[in-house]
Design a protein that fits this description.
Layout lengths: L1 H10 L5 H30 L4 H28 L2 H25 L4 H29 L5 H30 L2 H20 L12 H6 L5 H10 L1 H32 L4 H24 L6 H13 L2 H4 L8 H23 L4 H28 L3 H25 L34
Helix pairs in contact: 1-11, 2-5, 2-6, 2-7, 3-5, 3-15, 4-5, 4-7, 5-15, 6-11, 6-14, 9-15, 10-15, 10-16, 11-14, 12-14, 12-16
């Protein structure tokens, strides 16, 4: 009986028609993104591009993400979110279809690939905050936790495992440009699924008429709300600093650690990434099946910290195989923290939800390139050890300081005893600030 209850809880969001369509669109688009990660370098190489030109392509996508993410949040609060997501998928479909058409004509250049990558990054920046803000409009509040666990499962499977593997197989059977054409089809299917969503039909839905009739809240009001909620801006800063400390060592230095110090190769690094992906999937499935704890925010922060701490030990292990338990810890606990955070941030008032989420996205994205630059500055043993140790220990100290300075006990998972924040009245947006007691 308990197993059936767990399964019911984990799949509860799919009972709602609108969310089923949204979930299918999310699944298909994420799968296409996983394939794109593999196909993109091969297309650049087939066009005669070298490593610097490939870096330009990847960098253009990152620039598109960072430069447009705040615009995406503003659009998500100004227009119906279904429309924002749908048109961003259409834009991605159009640019990939044009890329394929130019390739068929036989005149595709690397600079065109750079432009397409920028548009895809911008499209993701616009659809991402809108998608995160749209989920609470499609499911009842008590199902938000399970919905985020489902989406985390899909993201881990498609982006870390199935998508790249499928992309590699398809490229071996077809040419890489054909695989990009399939990615275009995935965005077309996702756009169609979003088009069939009828907000206001499922429980928890907000109709398009309600979204369009609501008076938009000025950006300064959104910022006043954000900084009026101590828990919110402190945790956004916390996660941004942790990414600054951790992403460079993980993405830049860890492959060299595996190769130069532990005698590993690309297969070993791939195994490390795969293990983190499997741990993330398992954690997401278990989270979706379990009732969230009452001390939701505290557990979220502790989970994030548990996922970050092993970095301090990685640089001292004598064998590659001892890295794998740490990969499990990172994949598992970072996923738990991310699911909890996604659910918490979705409880902010709908009128500013898109902009708050976009600011969170910006805090996560903006410092990652800086972290990579810092990691690439030096390669000496002492420098590497220092970055790994600081990356694993400072988040622990930050967590202790946060728990003392911010009262997280008042924050509960959606659907529990604490009432969800009141939505600001359209005719009087000023009460938005302090709509929920600040922590």
């Amino acid at each position: 009986m308990s197993k059936s209850r767990s399964l019911y809880r984990s799949l509860a969001p799919l009972r709602h028609r609108d969310y089923r369509l949204f979930f299918i669109s999310y699944l298909v688009s994420m799968l296409g993104d996983g394939v794109w990660l593999v196909a993109l370098p091969w297309v650049a190489m087939e066009l005669g591009g070298d490593s610097s030109e490939l870096a330009m392509v990847v960098g253009a996508e990152a620039v598109g993400l960072v430069s447009c993410v705040l615009v995406g949040g503003a659009l998500a609060d100004r227009f119906p979110r279904k429309r924002v997501i749908g048109w961003s998928f259409v834009a991605s479909f159009a640019v990939l279809a044009m890329l394929t058409a130019v390739h068929v004509i036989g005149d595709l250049k690397v600079w065109q690939l750079v432009g397409a990558a920028f548009v895809l990054g911008a499209s993701a920046a616009i659809s991402g905050p809108a998608s995160d803000a749209f989920t609470p409009d499609l499911v009842p509040e008590e199902s938000l936790h399970s919905a985020n666990a489902l989406e985390s499962t899909v993201r881990s499977l498609t982006m870390r495992m199935v998508g790249p593997a499928l992309g590699g197989v398809l490229i071996s059977l077809l040419d890489s440009m054909s695989v990009i054409m399939l990615n275009a089809v995935s965005f077309g299917v996702a756009a169609l699924c979003v088009a069939f969503i009828r907000p206001g039909v499922s429980a928890g839905s907000v109709s398009e008429e309600e979204a369009e009739s609501a008076e938009p809240v000025p950006y300064r009001q959104a910022l006043r709300y954000l900084f009026g909620e101590r828990w919110l801006w402190v945790l956004i800063v916390w996660s941004g600093v942790v990414l600054l400390l951790q992403s460079g060592p993980r993405q830049v230095l860890l492959p060299f650690l595996i190769s130069d110090r532990l005698g590993g190769d690309a297969r070993d690094y791939g195994l490390f990434i795969a293990v983190t992906g499997v741990a993330a999937v398992v954690a997401s499935v278990v989270l979706g099946a379990r009732k969230p704890p009452k001390d939701y925010a505290r557990w979220m922060l502790l989970a994030w910290t548990a996922g970050a701490a092993p970095l301090a030990v990685m640089v001292f292990v004598p064998s590659f195989w001892l890295l794998l338990p740490m990969a499990v810890m990172y994949g598992c606990f970072s996923t738990v923290g991310n699911v909890y955070w996604s659910t918490l941030i979705q409880t902010v008032p709908s009128a500013v939800r898109g902009r708050v989420i976009s600011i969170d996205w910006l805090g996560s994205l903006a410092l990652v390139p800086l972290s990579a630059v810092i990691a690439g500055v030096g390669s000496g043993r002492a420098f590497v050890v220092t970055l790994f140790v600081l990356g694993g220990t400072l988040p622990v100290l930050m967590t202790l300081a946060t728990l003392r300075w911010v009262d997280l006990s008042a924050l509960r998972p959606p659907g529990e005893a604490v009432k969800k924040a009141e939505e600001p009245a359209p005719e009087a947006p000023e009460p938005l600030v302090g709509a929920r007691p600040a922590s």
